[in-house]
Design brief:
- The protein is an all-alpha fold.
- Helices cover 71% and strands 0% of the residues.
Length: 87
C-alpha cells in the first residue's frame, strides 16, 4: 500500500510540473493560461453560456474564473453581457 501511495504522489508531482510548463508556454506564446484556453474552447461550443453554468462545469471558484474571463474580455477574446433577469 505504501508503494502505491508513493507512486501516486510521484505521478501527481509530475503532472503538476507538466501543467505548469504547459501554462508557461501558453502564456509566452499566446498570452493566455490553460484555464483561459479551456474557457475559450467551451465558449466555442456554447457561446451564450451563463457564468454560473461555466463555473459549475469547471468547478472553479467564482473569483478565479471571473479574473480569467476579465482578462479574456480585455484582450477582446470574449464578450460578457449582463442578464437582465440577474440581480
Amino acid at each position: 500500500m505504501q508503494q502505491q501511495a508513493l507512486s501516486a504522489m510521484v505521478a501527481w508531482v509530475r503532472l503538476e510540473s507538466a501543467l505548469q510548463g504547459y501554462n508557461q508556454r501558453l502564456r509566452r506564446e499566446f498570452g493566455i493560461t490553460g484555464l483561459q484556453l479551456a474557457v475559450l474552447r467551451i465558449l466555442m461550443e456554447r457561446p451564450a453560456l451563463p457564468l454560473a453554468a461555466l463555473r459549475k462545469a469547471l468547478v472553479m471558484h467564482p473569483a478565479t474564473l471571473g479574473q480569467s474571463i476579465d482578462e479574456l474580455r480585455t484582450m477582446g477574446l470574449c464578450a460578457v453581457e449582463r442578464d437582465r433577469r440577474d440581480k
